[in-house]
Amino acid sequence: MTIRLADDAGIAAAADHLRGGEVVAFPTETVYGLGADATDDDAVSKVFAIKGRPALNPLIVHVAGPDWLEQLVEPDSRVDILTDAFWPGPLTLVLPRLPGCPVSKSVSANLGTIAVRQPDHTVATALLAAVNRPLAAPSANPSGHVSPTTAQHVEADLGDALDFILDGGPCRSGLESTVLDLTTDTARILRPGVIGSDELAAMIGDVENQTVSTGLVKAPGQLAKHYAPNLPVRLNADTAVKGEAFIVLGGGPNADFDLSPSGDLAEAAATLFAALRKMDDPSRFSGLAIAPIPDQGIGLAINDRLRRAARGR
Ligand code: TXA
Ligand code: MG
Q1: Lining residues, ligand 1, CB within 6 Å
Q2: Range in 133-137, 225-229, 249-253, 308-312 with the lowest mean pLDDT
Q3: Atom 13, ligand 1: which residue's CA is nearest?
Q4: Residue 88: is the preceding peptide bond cis (ω within 30°)?
Q5: Nearest CA to 247 among 225, 274, 266?
Q6: Judging by DSSP bridges, how do beta strands 60-62 and 165-167 pair with one another?
Q7: How many domains does the chain have?
Q8: Is residue 215 part of a domain?
Q9: Does 223 map to a domain?
Q10: Fewer CB in 10 Å around end: N or C, the chain?
């Protein structure tokens, strides 16, 4: 396993690796992705194997810009509006795949749709330009675990199984992208993120929220046991009890970790996964107690991830 600094030489080496059908972990503005050439069946199968990802759970395809959509997905007037407003950025669009689309069918679990986004990170942008192919990339964690927001998180989780991690420092946004289903007349959020339903509705009209797990899972990231630390997680805690770590927002007594001393939700989102990982230490704590997070704006997406973490494995 090699961690390489994401300078020009590191990016060029990572691009060679990807073009050779190998897997590279790379930074985006949300979390680190486990990338492979999306048009290469064998490369994509390595991603599923390294993550222990069920073949039924589709991957997001990363592109260098909206122009690339023409080769991949059916046109849709909402796409132009949304990509103008939010790309590059943490918004993933699920669209019907075009006949002749070069992306491996295993990327989207033979669903007939593709989830696609343009990441807003200079390293991801440079890598996509150098590879000049769409990159399939789920979050670079073992299936079911907390997503990585640093190269060191990736190393700790997947270092044994992975031979190339491109280190671009900590991810600035910290929560995975909003996943928006555009395969129906009314757009539907399959996974909440920093870009919320109000912002989306202002652009394209009605947007449904589908954040509650049902038996019929359209985005398996909705499954209850995603994003789980090893220790039990208790939400809306006023204080910690019995050896728990106390994770708070905006100060307070007896805090072990403050997600944002000023109570800023964007900062809390950026530090959430690092906090969960740091406090998830059975040699120090017996569980994680998390203070209430306001259920508005970015807090909706933070609480979505926390509920999944609390449901455990
Ligand atoms: O911010 C992000 O989205 C990060 C970075 C690396 O881009 N990626 C990420 O990927 O979080 P992953 O694989 O951990 O989550 C992808 C989510 C899953 O919930 C998956 O089920 C859903 O997107 N998804 C992917 N393709 C889909 C499709 N064709 N239809 C519906 N949902 C899809
Ligand atoms: Mg993930």
Answers
A1: 28, 30-31, 33, 57-60, 90, 92, 94, 108, 111, 113-115, 119, 137-139, 176-177, 179, 190-191, 218-221
A2: 225-229
A3: 138
A4: yes
A5: 274
A6: unpaired
A7: 2
A8: no
A9: no
A10: C
